[in-house]
Design a protein that fits this description.
Bound molecules: glycinamide ribonucleotide
Distance between the termini: 23 Å
Shape: globular
Number of strands: 9
CATH class of the largest domain: Alpha Beta
Strand content: 15-25%
Radius of gyration: 16 Å
CATH superfamily of the largest domain: Formyl transferase, N-terminal domain
Structural class: alpha/beta
CATH topology of the largest domain: Rossmann fold
Strand order of the largest sheet: 3-2-1-4-5-6-7
CATH architecture of the largest domain: 3-Layer(aba) Sandwich
Amino acid sequence: MALKVSVLGSGSGTNFEAIASYFDSPEKRNIARIACVISDISGAYIMERARKRNIPSHLIPCDAFKTKLDPETEEKYVDTLKSYNTELVVLAGFMRVVKKGILYAFPDRVINIHPALLPSFKGLKSWQQAYDYGVKVTGCTVHFADEGIDTGPIIAQRVVGIEDADTAEAIHEKIQVEEHDVYPKVIEAIACGRVSVYGRKVRIKGGRL
Ligand code: GAR
């Protein structure tokens, strides 16, 4: 049976789109499917994308904090995720740190994508941080979420070269090309039981993604 994946996002939702279209193809449909989308931001384009694909979407705002969820709101997220029998929680541009509520409800089943090669450039606008620092390569990281900020065990990383002429936005565009390719493949590997975690080390049967 297809793994039930729910996507949390605060923004444009291009990663959601990449994941949804990957698992829309006939040969991938039985591997995973998106059960629902949840956003904390009213008017986030990810919600519109979900509607266009007839995927249920929920707005669960959080007024108490800017970058995390208060326990009460987190409980609403957990209830909604559980109401879809979610088996994997995918953070795709979700701009809040998830805490115990979601992590305990879905142990080792919450993943995040970050637009830098962790542990470099944690936090916000990592492509801008990479540009400002003057690094020659950056990339993206898919990792299991833990209680820290961008600190969980790393599942996959992709490298992007930075040219002298690149603007911060051009760097983000290159990073997103890699994000859209790697994130669905990570979900597929998890769905197929190919991903194991040993402390900080993540091993993937069949090789790196
Ligand atoms: C992505 O680049 C993702 O890596 C980043 O937000 C963007 C969302 O794009 N996430 C973070 O910065 C999390 N700290 P999308 O809404 O088009 O998928």
